[in-house]
Amino acid sequence: MTGARSKMAYKNYCVVFILFALAIVQAVGYDTELYDPPCDSNACFESLHGALGDCSCNVDTIDYFNNVKIFPRIQSLVSKDYFRFYKVNLKKECPFWADDSRCAMKYCHIKTCSKESVPGYENGYNNDLDEETAAAKYSEEAQTTPCNSDSDHDPDLGYLNMTISAASQFEIAKWKAHDDSIDNFCDCDDRDVDAEYVDLSLNPERYTGYKGPSAHRIWRSIYQENCFRPKMNPYESFPYVLSSDFSNMCLEKRVFYRAVSGLHTSINIHLCSKYLLSEKGVGFAAPPEGEWGPNLEEFQRRFDPSQTFGEGPAWLKNLYFVYLLEMRALAKAGPYLENEDYFTGNPIEDQETGDAIRNMLSVIYTFPDHFNESSMFTGGIQATKLKNEFREHFWNISRIMDCVGCDKCKLWGKLQTQGLGTALKILFSGRWDSPGDPEQGNLPLRHKANKRLQRTEIVALFNAFARLSNSIRELENFRIMLRSDEERNIFIMCETNVK
């Protein structure tokens, strides 16, 4: 009898303990002062709150703003026909090293689509890419085509010879390429002969099984050869800059590193949230291509402090940083984007797309703590030199994406890199600057023709921002999973002790 009472008392104790623990979790969320958690706990989120650094914003503000206001809008927007189709060349050879480490898994392949299947293509969808080249404009054929068929027109009177030699045509084409490259922060290949349209909705970003030396070489080259760094860190085979060394970097170099790190973090979160859990699935209800879903262990492996020399939480903060940077670019180019024609050949769809753009931008303008790029690259010749280095380094990173051995990974790597490159172009090329208040996104629109973005750049810009928004939303899902995991472990521990 005494034993039964003791057992009952212990059960009651466990129930009270569980309720108390749940109350604590509910009250403090992922606050850190109550726990000193091991690797399989909530350690990833311990430092993920408070000040973000290099701007006046904080993580908690962005969490709420994104998850409640931006995420539903941007996900709806990129499902529109205008943003679904991305033109890209996936056949370019790696310009830096010979690498035949192609991903052989079926999940690495993508489904391209013919240009005829792109909505509105034949009615002008691609008109912004058909700009006449300098060589064609000044060819002999172009100059000898009659421009006036009036009967009283005498071509011999006032004759002006405007033909240009083939050598000069070639040089002019080089001039134009140079002028274009001054403002561009990434290699754009949508005009290549091998460029094809890809329906992004048919090729979602997710873990494909692409890993090993080839995959590691991509990011190692990006961090070690193209990111600014104060010094090599003391850890062997660890190519990242330690957050403790940020104070030894100037603002511009720190912004560059944090933007690249944030992009890398976002991609890792996508892979963890859409992980291949089972190729065959279970039962008849399983999808034919396997079962995909969040992998909590993989997320912890990539971001837990005990697995990353303590850098995981800093990498997660960099995600919020690059999100803020790209959102600022959208705000800065907002007046231009509000007046852009989002043509697909379907007037109703086009109108809805434009309305959705304006609605989302109106929300972005209300964000109180935009990234302030005006404090960067000030100081004369040295600042100009640093700005050129900044652009050249990112240009190299965009070319490294051609070295990715998995087509689906390459597709999303190139798209998100071009999206970030377009954001940098808007922020730092100078063409988008105006005397408006730098703290506000709603800047006056001037000389729209001189600020024109190509369709592919706009598609990449919004899709890249949508990927960052999705990553922040997925973090909330992983946070909930970790809390549930802890609660379950407490319950199991008590149940085991009772038995």
Average residue pLDDT: 76
Rg, please?
27 Å
Class by alpha and beta content: mainly alpha
What's the total count of β strands? Answer: 5
Strand content: under 5%
- The string of secondary-structure elements, in order, is HHHEEHHHEHHEEHHHHHHH
Runs with pLDDT <50, length 5+? 15-41, 129-135, 145-150, 436-448
- Gap between N and C termini, in Å? 17 Å
What does this structure look like?
The chain is built from 15 helices and 5 strands. Residues 15-41, 129-135, 145-150 and 436-448 have low confidence and may be disordered. Helix 2 packs across helix 15 (455-498) and helix 10 (312-332) packs across helix 14 (407-428). 51% of the residues lie in helices and 3% in strands. The strands form 2 sheets. Strands 1-3-2 form a 3-stranded antiparallel sheet. The protein has a two-stranded antiparallel sheet with strand order 4-5. It is mainly alpha-helical.
Give a quick rundown of the structure:
With 499 residues, this protein is mainly α. The chain is built from 15 helices and 5 strands.
Write the layout of secondary structure elements.
Layout: H1 2-28, H2 59-77, H3 81-84, E1 85-88, E2 112-113, H4 134-137, H5 140-144, H6 166-183, E3 196-199, H7 213-226, H8 251-273, E4 275-278, E5 291-293, H9 296-303, H10 312-332, H11 334-338, H12 347-365, H13 381-400, H14 407-428, H15 455-498
Antiparallel strand pairs: 1-3, 2-3, 4-5
